[in-house]
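Hi V.,

Quick status before I head out on leave. The structure for the redesign project is tokenized and pasted below; the design run finished overnight.
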């Protein structure tokens, strides 16, 4: 070592200074470079270690060989290697910054440990609270927005009104409260700040934003309910992802602990074949909600109770374990589409000319990203074209212009997502990549860890390679869940327009999902018939299969005859009884003629799963009672099913 120092002291002073400074600068830059490159776990592991080894050897080469050349006063070699060393130092700085930025953006996609929750106390417009007012609150003491923050509003504002608690396990408590608010059974209610987004698509609350007012609000930082949903499933093997469309009024995802669940796509992905099978679940299908004692409701209502409730509900429905979820803020679709330079989509010709009373003049028309009509209305000509951010979001949101409604919207959302993914893979420059990464990190949240996301590098590389060659970068298996209208009577006394699904269609799709996951083996088709006289079109998985209705409802016989009801009861093998009532009974309907059914218990449109027997009350004569009549007191204590 002493000999080395003696040699260094013999070198020209300035050259010696440059050698030491450049060597130290290289060492510092190289150290940060090693740290950052090691953070890229799962990405070209062998190559990364080879790069580290090369630059480590170069440092030794630069110092010792340059020192030897300087001792021999060969300055040209030293100058050239010093310039190269300076370039490497700059490269270390730039690459370390880029890698650090990449890892930071990816980390931002992970669910945060704590997020801000906000609760509102709302009333109908022009309503004020007094000492006799009644306020609605859900009874779930673990619900942050509906109960915990609600109690803080009460305490901080010294509210003394009566509190009516709603059962959140056996019904959709928030929806029940809204119905009671509109029917003035309560005067106000505590609800998430996203209530407009959550319930404006319900037919009875389409104008809820203009019909309600916020009296009080409060926010607080709490542990994210979704942060504990983890999975250690390797992305090198087939896995599942639940795509949750968060239709927010805001940019970013911090304000969206509760979301409206209008977009639910269960995707299975096989990284070996680059094949994805997508199941779009319509928001209105009527299914058991896992976090509410498996009571039936529209599937989108599960979103108001958090991601875990949605996941459990869909897992119970499909018998498929969901490994990961991906929340996409559809307001952020505008930024994403703009970042990739637009998306190419074949805009479907609308079936209707009006959308929410707005005349579309043969075009597609929808609200803008801020849900504004008038001069802000988005108009699009049907056909294949490149859509900008506002147009893409409008097309992904709309269902009012198409006879298939939510089914059409689901189809369009899949088209937008796939077109967006394809453009996102066509990276043209670092700035282009950064814009896409910024938009993604601000508008997507997932339970995948940073290391799990980075481990998908090889999949991403294969997809980019195919996309750059203008090949299909992913094989999409299309599915179509066959549904039917299912108007259901609610305990609140209202009828909601839900959808039932055909079990044969769902089972066909579930089988395809499991085959892609390699849980089941595909059946080999040994025969195939084809006629030249028939046009051949490939059907989506599940399409056309319409057997095995998932649900049915009790027919409504109010205003019909006893004979009609008897025939129905015989056909359905129901235990039915008939009772005559006079005008003194609460079950009598003075607007109906004698001998017509005035009331039935349970109410028409009640789910058949909840029906054991049916009692029909028939308008009798008010002036006389015979053996078929019943005294009004016999049944007056019996409550209707909606009480």
């Amino acid at each position: 070592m002493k000999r080395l120092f003696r040699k260094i002291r013999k070198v020209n002073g300035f050259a010696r200074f440059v050698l030491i400074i450049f060597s130290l600068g290289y060492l510092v830059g190289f150290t940060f470079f090693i740290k950052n490159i090691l953070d890229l776990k799962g990405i070209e592991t062998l190559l990364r270690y080879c790069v580290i080894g090369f630059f480590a050897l170069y440092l030794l080469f630069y110092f010792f060989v340059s020192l030897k050349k300087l001792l021999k006063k060969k300055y040209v070699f030293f100058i050239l290697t010093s310039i190269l060393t300076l370039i490497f130092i700059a490269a270390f700085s730039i690459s370390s910054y880029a890698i650090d930025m990449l890892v930071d953006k990816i980390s931002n996609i992970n669910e945060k440990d704590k997020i801000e929750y906000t609760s509102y106390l709302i009333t109908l417009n022009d309503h004020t609270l007094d000492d006799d007012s009644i306020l609605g609150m859900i009874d779930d003491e673990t619900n942050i927005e509906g109960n915990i923050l609600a109690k803080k509003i009460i305490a901080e504002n010294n509210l003394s009104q009566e509190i009516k608690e709603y059962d959140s396990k056996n019904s959709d408590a928030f929806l029940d409260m809204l119905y009671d608010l509109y029917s003035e059974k309560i005067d106000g209610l505590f609800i998430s700040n996203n209530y407009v987004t959550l319930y404006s698509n319900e037919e009875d609350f389409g104008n809820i934003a203009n019909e309600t007012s916020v009296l009080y609000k409060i926010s607080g930082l709490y542990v994210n309910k979704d942060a504990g949903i983890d999975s250690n499933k390797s992305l090198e093997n087939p896995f599942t992802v639940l795509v949750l469309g968060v239709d927010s009024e805001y940019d970013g995802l911090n304000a969206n602990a509760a979301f409206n669940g209008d977009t639910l796509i269960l995707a299975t992905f096989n990284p070996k074949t680059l094949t994805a099978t997508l199941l779009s679940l319509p928001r209105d299908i009527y299914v058991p909600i896992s976090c509410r004692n498996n009571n039936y409701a529209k599937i989108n209502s599960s979103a108001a109770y958090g991601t875990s409730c949605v996941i459990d509900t869909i897992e119970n429905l499909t018998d498929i374990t969901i490994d990961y979820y991906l929340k996409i803020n559809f307001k952020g679709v505008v930024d994403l589409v703009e970042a990739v330079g637009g998306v190419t989509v074949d805009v479907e010709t609308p079936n209707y000319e009006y959308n929410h009373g707005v005349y579309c003049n043969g075009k597609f028309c929808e609200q803008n990203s801020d849900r504004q009509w008038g001069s802000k209305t988005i108009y699009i000509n049907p056909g294949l074209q490149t859509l900008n951010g506002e147009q893409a979001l409008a097309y992904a949101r709309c269902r009012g212009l198409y006879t298939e409604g939510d089914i059409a919207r689901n189809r369009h959302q899949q088209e937008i997502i796939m077109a967006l993914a394809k453009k996102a893979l066509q990276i043209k420059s670092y700035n282009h990549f950064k814009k896409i990464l910024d938009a993604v990190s601000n508008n997507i949240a997932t339970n995948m860890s940073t290391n799990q996301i980075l481990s998908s590098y090889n999949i991403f590389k294969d997809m980019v390679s195919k996309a750059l060659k203008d090949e299909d970068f992913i094989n999409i298996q299309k599915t179509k869940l066959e549904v039917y209208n299912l108007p259901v009577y609610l305990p609140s006394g209202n009828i909601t327009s839900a959808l039932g699904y055909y079990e044969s269609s769902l089972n066909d799709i579930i089988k395809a999902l499991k085959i892609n996951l390699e849980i089941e083996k595909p059946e080999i088709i040994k025969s195939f018939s084809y006629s030249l006289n028939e046009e051949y079109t490939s059907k989506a998985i599940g399409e056309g299969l319409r057997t095995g209705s998932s649900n049915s409802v009790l027919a409504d016989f109010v205003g019909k005859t006893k004979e009609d009801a008897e025939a129905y009861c015989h056909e359905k093998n129901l235990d039915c009884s008939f009772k005559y009532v006079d005008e003194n009974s609460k079950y009598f309907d003075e607007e109906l003629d004698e001998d017509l059914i005035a009331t039935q218990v349970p109410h028409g449109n009640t789910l058949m799963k909840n029906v054991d027997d049916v009692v029909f009350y028939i308008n009798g004569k008010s002036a006389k009672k015979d053996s078929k009549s019943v005294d009004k007191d016999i049944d007056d204590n019996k409550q209707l099913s909606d009480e």
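Above is the designed sequence. Residues 562-635 form one domain.

G. will cover questions while I'm gone.

Best,
W.
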